[in-house]
Amino acid sequence: MKIKRFFASDIRQAMRMVKDELGADAVIMSNRSVDGGVEIVAARDFDEQLIHNKLQKDAAERKAQNPEVKQPPLQDFAAENKSAQIISSTRKKGADGSVPPRPLRRDFDEYLGYAEKMQINRPRRLQPDPVQKPAPAVSAKIEEIPDEPAPAIQEKTVMSARAEEPVSVARENSANDQLIKDMFQELKSLKMTMNSRLSEIGWRQNSQSNPVRVELLHRLVDMGIAKNLSMKVAGRLSNYQTIDPAFKKAQEMLVNVLPVYNDALLDYGGIAALVGPTGVGKTTTIAKLAARFILKHGPRQVALITTDNYRIAAHDQLNTYGRILDVPVRVAADAEQLRNLIDGFADKRLILIDTAGMSQRDQRLAEQIQTLQHDDLRIRPYLVMSAATQYKAMKEIIQAFQIFQPEAGILTKLDEAATKGAAISALIEQRMPLSYVTDGQQVPEDLHVASAKQLIEQCAAESDQESDYNAILDYDDWVAQGYA
């Protein structure tokens, strides 16, 4: 028989230590709360009759040696150790007063569940309860059992287990977190692989079943038309048997869906404010509009105002154009000054307002709106955009400047754009009407009224010069273009 004492921070960990050390057939002799946790005394290969006889013999010897010390009756041993429920519940005397040779054991796992339940329902004691201390004789006798480890070694083992427990739990949690991350990465990689394979299969099937549609997509890609728009156009023309009629029809569709604004600003005048990001050519465009209007109506009918107070020497360029065109140029610091200047130019047919260039993410856009908003003055905003801007950035610009409710758009720098398809796609998808385009720095020669047909034809002509339509567009080329 082997008896051993176990220390742990709570009853659950102590019971697991008993099970790991002595096995599932171990018998719980006693348990109690101690400073820092609980103490359990357990035994393996337990023989209650042998223990009982040995305790009776030891008690008689101590009584003979120390008659003045009153020892508790052996019959009350189980009552004093109420926590040893396995012994107390099975210890019944027979007809002759003897103890049965083998008690009925409570299953170890059942006791473990009961102990956990008691631990949850009962508050944990920080200090040991002196009332529940076992009898000194019994405690001393158990400590003398040879199988029990030395106190120094036992204390060291308990302290080491307590110190290593949080570290082991943290390592286990960290390992579980890493395992979950690895699983997510594998699932993500598997999803990407499946999507790629399915796209490739679909591409090859389309290439074989409908080569005209694939070739049409090839040409729209060369024009710079955005993915969604290219797929929609090609999908509606999939019934064509040859590429040339299909491509011509695709151009007609793009012409029809590109919104153009029939503007009368250069004919009748008005108050126009040019807004847009920095560096798109707002000031130069104002000079072109003013010069074009002067050619029709004379310089006395035009006035220029700038609200750009953010840049150093921001007014110099506009003042230079004013001197060249012989038109007045004024600076408005706020909404009130702008209103006064407009009232002062009441005899002018065309008033052009130059604003500060701001990014589509700039928080000062709201301030600029307040400057231009006047209930009794009809100021018509025009959104100026560069044709060299990327497709996604162009969409962001249009969406951000919608707070100005622009009358129309002006597309600049057509001569600098590698392809006009990105800007055209953004205008079509955002339904932004186009009024004027510019394709150079000459004033006013490089300002033109917008024409959807001319823009689409220019895109198609540029792609014809740079592309070899006889080459087969395979899946890798399609992926490289970002259309898969």
UniProtKB/TrEMBL annotation:
Its main location: membrane. GO terms for biological process: bacterial-type flagellum organization; protein transport; SRP-dependent cotranslational protein targeting to membrane. GO terms for molecular function: GTP binding; GTPase activity; signal recognition particle binding. It is a peripheral membrane protein. Keywords: Bacterial flagellum biogenesis, Bacterial flagellum protein export, Cell membrane, Cell projection, Cilium, Flagellum, GTP-binding, Membrane, Nucleotide-binding, Protein transport, Transport. InterPro entries: AAA+_ATPase, FlhF, FlhF__GTPase_dom, P-loop_NTPase, SRP54_GTPase_dom. Residues 269-461 form the SRP54-type proteins GTP-binding domain. This is Flagellar biosynthesis protein FlhF. It comes from Methylotuvimicrobium alcaliphilum (strain DSM 19304 / NCIMB 14124 / VKM B-2133 / 20Z). The lineage of its organism: Bacteria, Pseudomonadati, Pseudomonadota, Gammaproteobacteria, Methylococcales.
